[in-house]
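Hey, I was hoping to borrow your eyes for a little while. A protein chain has come my way and I'm curious about its shape. Take your time with it, there's no hurry, and the full record follows here:
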Amino acid sequence: MMRLLLPLVFCLSLVACRSEPAQPYESAPPNIRGTITLGSKSLTEQYLLMKMSALLLKDEGYKVNEMVFLDSQAVRTAMEARVADLYWEYTSTARIYYHKRSPLYNPEESYREVSLEDAKKGIVWLPKSSFNSSWALLMRKDISEQLHIYKISDLANYIRTKNPKMKFATNNEYLGREDGLERLKHVYEFSLSASQVVAIESDLLTQTVKDGRVDVAVGMASDPRIKKNDLILLEDDRKVFPPYDAAPVILETTLKRYPDIARTLERLTPYITNENMLSLMYQVDILQKDITKTSRDFLIKNHLLQS
């Protein structure tokens, strides 16, 4: 009874979650193997990861409840309270925000350490994807080609030798982070005065670069407006940004009860790449396509579901 009441408590007290309604083309399996509750943060990439996972699990005969939470802390709290069985998490989110540790910059080391730490709480990290939802430097594609700037080290050299007055934009969060602007300047050995950096809303970063109001923005590599606004990501050749590799995390008790869930998700994980996720987010956020149909079409295209 307590397990049935807990989701309602989360929704009412945190205003943090909502259940996803069934879609008309999602049919319930005739023989239910078990019930799984999937969680998602309120981000398009998270909706997609939850929806693709749900479609595959339903195809395997599970009844799936989908719950969308307000933010990282809400979905993490739900998992620790055994309300959510499974969701997709990012390595550095766990390392920095849940475990309160300094970021690690080697992707494999970061994954290993968060896996070991979460195992103490009965949370299992399944194999991670290559989708890295991290920070990135964004430039207009035409300017990048004109100046031959393709890597952050190219940009740093250009600032040092040709144009020390280039303007940057980012959000307030990045300015205050331990792994933020000060680390970027230190690792790549260039300087910026306070007047060269403007803090704006994340949603405006790509448009600000496109319009030429700044030369460079530090934004999210997974922003689908990068493609819409004809920008490029500069290669982080000195690994200044910590990895935010996405991976499914599942309660150990749930995995022991339904061990085949790991095999099901391991079929999906190789297809969760930066290129594929940007394409999916572009379809949903920019082209306004239905998220369930977009997810289903992607799974069918990659032979993970039958049409």
About this structure: The radius of gyration is 21 Å.
